[in-house]
Write the structure tokens for this entry.
Amino acid sequence: MKRIVALCLAAACLISMVGCAGDTNMDEKKPNNSASAYALALASYPEMAPYPNEMEYFDEKTGEFDSDGFDVVYDAWQADRKAQRSQPEGYADGLEAFFASSIREFLSNSNGANKVYSPINIYMALAMLAEVTDGESRQQILDLLGSESIETLRAQAASVWNANYSNDGAVTSILANSLWLNESVNFNQSTMDSLATNYYASSFRGEMGSEEFNQALRDWINEQTGGLLEAQADGLSMDPETVMALASTIYYRAKWHSEFNEARTEKSLFHLLSADGETVECDFMHKGGSNTYYWADQFGAVSLSLEGSGKMWLLLPDEGVTMDDLLNDEQTMEFLNSNGNWENSKHLIVNMSVPKFDVVSDFDLGEGLRALGVTDVFDVQVADFTPMTSEVAEIFLSKADHAARVAIDEEGVTAAAYTVMMMNGAAAPPEEEMDFVLDRPFLFAITGADGLPLFVGVVNRP
């Protein structure tokens, strides 16, 4: 009988895989939702010194600030943050092609709708999928991710995970993974141990197809993504034939390095991409100051720094350049992978007008993954899941869903995403000052501290 493997990923902060997890990086703590009844073992995440609260070191009676006490705690926070982000030099090399091709594949043809997805979430999900496959099924994934071997991919994924993990009170960037196992199937322990060790994957085991087990999966995803994708997760379910499901999430929150003044937010018109010149009224945030302006043949761009984290990049297509034109432009992908290392740039005063937005999308990854060369896992006749289990024949990937959400306001960014896979040129700027007004469709990207893209999206209607 054909059997289904399920993978579930979540991002915005995102990823997962199924198996009987071993003891490495695990503890016995139970989650505060229905998943607790099914937990075999839960990942133990890195501990980080908390960012110090300045007010705790201020004496209201004397008006004095305990700078020495503050410095001790601050230095401990900085040391932990540096250690967490310290990864081998060049650990992300080779990912540029995957990010470029997947951004283009999953964001094109938006047809006036908002679209957003998490490249790093899908990367992590595919890396875990590679762990439970073999032969040509695995090779196609390795080729897409630019890895020479599963060992190379495993080491790189672990570095990417750690470089982008933060839960210190200043920045929240939590990547969580989980395995959802069919209670009637035995899984290869070495594979499950690898998922637990290298991907911090928690494991749960229960009756596939039961409403209770499905609800446990939804609860886990909602807990890991701060409830931002509750409406999307509500439709997730595993069939009785599901052998395994992998789930990965990322939950992300960060403040602007320099916040927008709420008093300056005002209504203005956003010009939609339509033949009749349709507009919508929305709230625009305003801020001016020293910034770097970047330009290429078809767009201009600026970035907004996030406190203790990476940046949000805002790319405005030139007049007459469609969003698909922009996504198919090699310069666009080169710029998104450049982390600001771009020849055509100039430091000047930039007066920004940015619409507040809350964009969400969910879609089936299957067609896009096939277009990107990952085909065998979907074909029951050739899919190779032997590293996962030897008990079940004819396993295939039956479903691959992804959802993501990004919202910005005067204070900063909140974002989340999940993926579920089931196995069954602008001109140079003026000399001193310029206006950068995002009053028509634009592209954005949120990058982590290491410059890798956490979320990329198209805003056609704020």
Observations:
- The domain at 262-356+426-459 is CATH 2.30.39.10 (Alpha-1-antitrypsin; domain 1).
- The two ends are 47 Å apart (CA to CA).
- The CA atoms of residues 48 and 80 lie 6 Å apart.
